[in-house]
UniProtKB/TrEMBL annotation:
Biased composition, class Basic and acidic residues, residue ranges: 213-223
A Pfam family per the record: DUF247
Annotated protein name in UniProt: Uncharacterized protein
Disordered, as annotated region: 210-231
Keyword presence, Glycoprotein: no
Species for this entry: Citrus sinensis
Parts forming coiled coils: none
Keywords of the record: Membrane, Transmembrane, Transmembrane helix
Length: 425
């Protein structure tokens, strides 16, 4: 884990590893004692002046943060070898090591661990941080089991796809060229009148948004190509904040589990996010997990993508407050502003990548948000009113012409004299 070659002899390095591993095992035994997997001994009680079960001692959190750092990782096979020396059988050593690692992950992991989740074997992980990463980010085969679809669901999806295609066909028949011509004729006539041509295009965009989409290529409109073949253009995820989504009647519901539970129900307008607990150790743990993922993972950077998602939807402490009130965020920091600062400060992705199931959720959320009439009107007004100097110039010209016409009318018919004469009567 070091960035340069260590100029130590093999024996010196072995002694250093043995001493660090001994302290690490002594610390991890606290979690085995907590779950009654290991009886309290005099050696294990010697460290209780530094740590306690409730984690109230200052040194406890400091040691946890030190153990979670990428550069401080000790191979798990070293811990197994040392435990096998202590215990008569390798099965007992593996059982105790498993209990230690599970207790450590329950203490450090920001996400709630499922009790019925398939247990990750310690022998399959390189070190402590790798074990923690695998409990948060499921492997490919675990994802297939979690998100697996049975035959009934496949049949249901096929039915939905059939009715979707049927509706598209009917829409094309209804919105045929003759009918579209009848609707577009007023806009065409207005566009020929001086001054009204500026207003014709916004109205046309509002009524016929599909005309703008028609200019896009099939590859751009294809979800599969968009998600799988093209890398993201920017690291920031384009998705509204929690406050903006709440104004569009999107609700937030917490889920128990890892990142695979992120989903969006478009019919009920519910965004499901895993419950995350934030304390003084969370930022360092997340940063090191993201760094480990970037240096080790050969596939998509799932945790990094999730961090970018949270970074995007959380802009201010108001966003954190809404998530906290809905049970998505369990805040053990001093304020909601610290939580917003935490997410906005986490490093961006080192390597551009896409995570299909998270990207699909983002696309569905954006599709629902952009389909709201309030958002449509606001974007249309922002694009064609606030962003158009031509419209402002046109309005100023109209007002100037009206005032000039009024002044000319009063100069001809003497409005002031006529007004005084009518008052005398």
């Amino acid at each position: 884990c070091y960035h340069k070659y260590l100029k130590f002899s093999s024996e010196t390095l072995a002694w250093m590893m043995a001493i660090d591993a001994s302290f690490l095992l002594e610390f991890l035994q606290i979690y085995a004692m907590k779950d009654d997997k290991l009886p309290a001994t005099s050696s294990s009680l010697s460290i209780l002046h530094l740590v306690d079960y409730a984690g109230m001692k200052a040194a406890h959190n400091a040691i946890l943060r030190d153990m979670s750092m990428l550069e401080n990782q000790i191979p798990i096979f070293v811990l197994r070898k040392m435990l096998q020396v202590q215990y008569s059988s390798s099965e007992s050593a593996d059982y105790l090591l498993q209990a230690m690692l599970i207790g450590f992950c329950e203490e450090v992991s920001p996400f709630k661990m499922k009790k019925y989740k398939p247990m990750i074997q310690a022998s399959e992980c390189a070190h402590l941080l790798d074990y923690l990463y695998n409990t948060i980010v499921p492997k490919a085969e675990q994802r297939a089991a979690i998100t697996g679809i049975d035959d009934q669901e496949i049949y249901s999806d096929d039915s939905k796809r059939f009715f979707t295609e049927l509706w598209k066909l009917l829409s094309k028949m209804i919105l045929s060229r003759p009918i579209q011509f009848l609707f577009k004729l007023p806009c065409f006539m207005l566009s020929k009148i001086p001054g009204f041509s500026i207003l014709a295009q916004p109205v046309k965009n509002l009524i016929f948004p599909q005309d703008n989409e028609g200019n896009k290529s099939d590859a751009e409109r294809s979800p599969s190509n968009k998600h799988m073949n093209k890398p993201p253009l920017v690291e920031e995820i384009t998705i509204p904040s929690v406050t903006e989504l709440a104004k569009s009647n999107v609700r937030f519901l917490p889920t128990v589990g890892d990142i695979s539970t992120v989903s969006f129900d478009a019919k009920k307008a519910i965004l499901h996010l895993p419950t995350i607990s934030l304390d003084v150790n969370t930022e360092l743990v997340l940063r090191n997990l993201v760094a480990y993922e970037a240096s080790n993972a050969s596939g998509p950077l799932v945790l990094t993508r999730y961090s970018e998602l949270m970074n995007r939807i959380i802009d201010t402490e108001k966003d954190v407050e809404l998530l906290r009130e809905n049970g998505v965020v369990l805040n053990r920091l001093r304020s909601d502003a610290e939580v917003a600062k935490l997410w906005n400060g986490i490093s961006k992705s080192i390597r551009l990548t896409k995570v299909p199931h998270i990207d699909i959720v983002i696309e569905d959320v954006n599709k629902y948000y952009n389909s709201r009439w309030r958002v449509k009107c606001w974007k249309n007004k922002k694009l064609n009113v606030f962003g158009s100097w031509q419209f402002l110039t046109f309005m100023a010209t109209v007002m100037l012409l009206l005032l000039t016409a009024l002044q000319a009318f009063c100069s001809i018919y003497d409005c002031r004299k006529h007004h005084h004469g009518s008052s005398y009567d």
